[in-house]
Amino acid sequence: MNHKILIVEDNPEIANLIQLHLKDIQCQADITADGLKGVEQFNKGDYELVILDIMLPVMDGLDVCKRIREKNKLTPVIMLTSKSSELDRVLGLEIGADDYITKPFSIPELLARVKAQFRRLDAMALPVTTAKINLGGLSIDTEKHNASLDGKKLELTAKEFDLLLHFASNPGHVYSRVDLLDKVWGYSYEGYEHTVNSHINRLRSKIEDDPTNPQYILTVWGVGYKFNEEHS
């Protein structure tokens, strides 16, 4: 079955190269060359993933991502960004991008990221043995793909939800950043561990009363992170 992907990239050589190689993994891809048209095309099509450049004419990729997330929380967004723009990468994650890859990038790495996102979507579609997880004041509904804290719905991106569910399903288990990249993101590349840090910081800002003194997701110094087993 072909997956349908939207590429929003103003460099035709890059866009066409990505489109060509996506066919090798049974993906059909449409291309738009500016941000506003990208938003319009996304709203018209039934896309399963978006590959989104940050530097775009008319509307930049950060605003495009923001507009997509206003209407759609779950469709994965992979952002393309320059190596020199750490701020753009952080902002992209803050507004709901699921992943990013820096230019210049290798096609095999990009395809690995795409396949990892589809594995996550496939896993979400599988039946689960436990529909709801309740830990302290935290409630996670795996069927509806939402979570609440003390009865108040949490506004989580797809990746934040995946990360929270993984921790909550394994309270007390300590995961390194590399472990989490492999388990939650579906890949492991040296140098991308700070992606985990950014997502955990954002998740803590949404579930912790005091993110500087977390009670749910704890840091195990020198090792990684774990979900506080006292809430299990």
Explain what this protein looks like in three dimensions.
The protein has 232 residues and is an alpha/beta fold. It folds into 2 domains: 3-125, Response regulator (Rossmann fold), CATH 3.40.50; 132-231, Winged helix-like DNA-binding domain superfamily/Winged helix DNA-binding domain (Arc Repressor Mutant, subunit A). Helix content is 41%, strand content 22%. Helix 2 (35-44) packs parallel to helix 3 (61-71), helix 6 packs across helix 7 and helix 7 packs across helix 8 (193-207).
Layout: helices, strands, pairs:
Elements (H helix, E strand, L loop, with lengths): L2 E6 L3 H11 L4 E6 L2 H10 L4 E5 L7 H11 L5 E6 L3 H9 L4 E5 L3 H19 L6 E4 L2 E4 L4 E4 L2 E2 L4 H12 L7 H9 L7 H15 L9 E4 L3 E4 L5
Parallel strand pairs: 1-2, 1-3, 3-4, 4-5
Antiparallel strand pairs: 6-7, 7-8, 8-9, 10-11
Helix pairs in contact: 2-3, 6-7, 6-8, 7-8
CATH-defined fold name of the largest domain? Rossmann fold
Shape: globular
Radius of gyration: 18 Å
Gross CATH architecture of the largest domain? 3-Layer(aba) Sandwich
Biggest β-sheet description: 5 strands, parallel
Describe the strand arrangement of the main beta sheet, using strand numbers.
2-1-3-4-5
Annotation field: number of helices: 8
Q: Pairing-aware structural class of the strands and helices?
A: alpha/beta
Report the β-strand fraction as a percent range. 15-25%
- What's the number of extended β-strand segments? 11
Indicate the percent of residues in helices: 40-55%
- Mean pLDDT, nearest integer? 86
Number of domains: 2
